[in-house]
Write a structure and sequence with these properties.
3 copies of one chain form a homotrimer.
Chain A (H helix, E strand, L loop, with lengths): L2 E7 L4 H19 L7 E7 L4 E3 L12 E8 L4 H17 L7 E8 L4 E2 L6 H5 L10
Parallel strand pairs in A: 1-2, 4-5
Antiparallel strand pairs in A: 1-4
Helix pairs in contact in A: 1-2
């Protein structure tokens, strides 16, 4: 169910782009417990001038940011979110991304805000999602 | 007022891309009652490897996903949302998209989160949006 | 901390695209008080047919829309948001964008929905963001 947007430099190789997408997905599985087959990702390569970031905001030395935006159902605890950030950053390091360059944003929505095919609202039918404490 | 992001394969023809955008818009008009001229859409074609999805999550046989993300004012009922998913999927089938391949996400925000030109907050001035039950 | 998505026509020059990104950032600094070095932006140029909009919805005569979507921590007052819309539109006019063509959407999230590098949740550590009234 999470929908993952990854915006990164087109100068990163197709091989690395795939490794980055794999890493973000594995981190969601590891840290939040989403099913391994619950994978929906949009990767958008950009010319370098299209990815703008400050090279030192809050003391983090960024050089080539990978933007990860994850839309997911609300209700994951702060602890789970912090685990997720660490796990994404660790796995992206294995894919050759400097930890300083991983910028992550979450956008939370409701259980009935999803249709993963056939025009049905499958999450409403399931009634819950992994790791969520509250039922919308 | 809804802002619609459509991410799809660049291998779909420009003609089909437009038909898909038209279908999503008509579904918003039909199911939620937005005005016919309340249309704001961003279509982004992708190389196939940039659109990642599981080919069978929750038993839906996906082959060539069209991602539809709709940002809209909160307050539409679950019933309206389910109507919207069905209507989008039906109209996209007419545009040649398999129902299994339509993945929809909603992101809800507040009435004062919109400016549709001239730096004004037109929805605040209107005071409401079609189909919404609550006034933020 | 705000993450800014700017989607605009590829027919706008690289020079103007940068001026637009600069203008949106300066408006966030001026109107909401974010730090000058708190800058994260993704610019996506599009072929004209990929940016769809009504040329007259709510009486605004649009010709070449620049879409600005800002993800930011919740809690800014309506007054601050209205100031932001006016300031963005004014500064984009200086960058050669007609005020009618500036369409802005805000998506608000929580303090613990951000990691700006190194896998940490820096906003949680800071405990607040400029201009926000409530502490999540």
């Amino acid at each position: 169910m999470p929908l993952v947007h990854i915006d990164l430099s087109a100068q990163r190789s197709p091989f690395q782009r795939r490794a980055i997408a794999d890493g973000v997905h594995q981190a969601l599985v590891d840290a939040i417990g989403i099913p391994a087959d619950d994978r929906f990702q949009i990767v958008t390569p950009h010319d370098p001038e299209e990815l703008i970031f400050d090279p030192n905001y809050l003391g983090v030395a960024r050089r080539d940011v990978v933007y990860v935006q994850i839309t997911l159902v609300q209700g994951r605890s702060r602890e789970l979110k912090l685990d997720l950030y660490r796990r994404i950053t660790d796995l992206l390091a294995e894919a050759g991304v400097r930890p300083e360059d991983v910028v992550i944003t979450l956008v939370e929505n409701a259980l009935d805000n999803w249709s993963v095919g056939n025009g049905r609202a499958q999450l409403v039918e399931l009634g819950t999602v992994p790791g969520a404490r509250v039922e919308p």
